[in-house]
Amino acid sequence: MKNIAVIGSGTMGNGIAHTFAQHGYTVTLIDIAEEALKKAINTIDKNLTRQVEKGTITEAIKKQTLENIATSSDLKSGVSNVDLVVEAATENIDLKLKIFQDLDAATLPDTILATNTSSISITEIASVTKRADKVIGMHFMNPVPVMKLVEVIRGYNTSNEVTSTIMELSRSLEKIPVEVNDYPGFIANRILMPMINEAIYSLYEGVAGVEEIDSVMKLGMAHPMGPLQLADFIGLDVCLSILNVLHDGFGNPKYAPCPLLVNMVQAGHKGIKSGNGFYAYTPGSKELKVSSRFVRN
Ligand SMILES: NC(=O)c1ccc[n+]([C@@H]2O[C@H](COP(=O)([O-])OP(=O)(O)OC[C@H]3O[C@@H](n4cnc5c(N)ncnc54)[C@H](O)[C@@H]3O)[C@@H](O)[C@H]2O)c1
């Protein structure tokens, strides 16, 4: 394993490219948007500079990491000669199915096709290819260069050999891979999202305020961030869509998204990305201020 292609250069794609390149892999970062590619390289540069300042890497490693990354807006030529593709494009099932059909046609027969999807079935993605044994979930966490976990998700037909290759590869990135099977939400989101939903229900039912709910989980359970702040960080639209996947996939009402979450997303309050969620975000300010909607008298 030497040559890697990463599809999608957004939040996750740039972190995945950064991590592979820093560990000596040659990376082609591919996006349909030229602007997104430029932004990704800037972000990687900035994040590497921060690592140099902290003393975790040297200037020479920073330089080599940047040299290991090429960009392309053409999927076909970008993936024609790689050992592994990690797809991290927008979370949309039709888009991913199309990308995997294209990847199946454009890559060498032995290329492993991984996806960083948070919630879409690996088995369904694999079903549009002629190599379901070589399709696998490689679920990195945000921010990728920092977070240790890779949730490695075996689709129904993923082979043992491909699974161990990806486990080993994750270790070579100084990550800790954990193997799970392909059911809605895998493990990370199956456990995290109901917790976030329950926190939102507690707010909706007036059991406690935003800061109180987050304080209980931070101080009492040693969570580094409360569930409502974490929901804002992930994106409330993303949380809603994952809860819908759990609800549809299991047909169990316990996963039904809280009506308050549905309302907030419909109102455009999506968390940090829209500047408002459970907290209000002012660009450049680090102060955590409860959104005026939830300030208690
Ligand atoms: N953001 C997170 O915290 C997080 C965590 C784990 C997993 N994920 C998953 O990672 C994936 C990417 O999420 P993100 O937050 O980085 O999204 P993002 O919106 O930041 O980036 C997605 C990128 O994909 C590009 N793209 C869209 N269609 C494409 C195509 N056909 N070919 C190439 N590029 C294309 C877009 O231009 C954009 O730059 C999703 O599947 C998401 O569920 C996200």
From TrEMBL:
Name of the molecule in the record: 3-hydroxybutyryl-CoA dehydrogenase
Entry keyword set: NAD, Oxidoreductase
Record family assignment: Belongs to the 3-hydroxyacyl-CoA dehydrogenase family.
Domain 3-hydroxyacyl-CoA dehydrogenase NAD binding: 3-182
Residues reported in the UniProt entry to bind NAD(+): G8, S9, G10, T11, M12, G13, D31, E91, K96, S118, N142, K273
Keyword Ligase included in the entry's annotation: no
MF (Gene Ontology): NAD+ binding; oxidoreductase activity, acting on the CH-OH group of donors, NAD or NADP as acceptor
Organism in which the protein naturally occurs: Ohtaekwangia koreensis
The 3-hydroxyacyl-CoA dehydrogenase C-terminal domain, residue ranges: 185-281
Domain of life, source organism: Bacteria
InterPro entries per the UniProt record, alphabetical: 3-OHacyl-CoA_DH (IPR022694), 3-OHacyl-CoA_DH_CS (IPR006180), 3-OHacyl-CoA_DH_NAD-bd (IPR006176), 3HC_DH_C (IPR006108), 6-PGluconate_DH-like_C_sf (IPR008927), 6PGD_dom2 (IPR013328), NAD(P)-bd_dom_sf (IPR036291)
Site (Important for catalytic activity) location in chain: H139
Pfam families tied to this protein: 3HCDH (PF00725), 3HCDH_N (PF02737)
Keyword NAD: yes
GO annotation terms (biological process): fatty acid metabolic process
Coiled-coil annotated spans: none
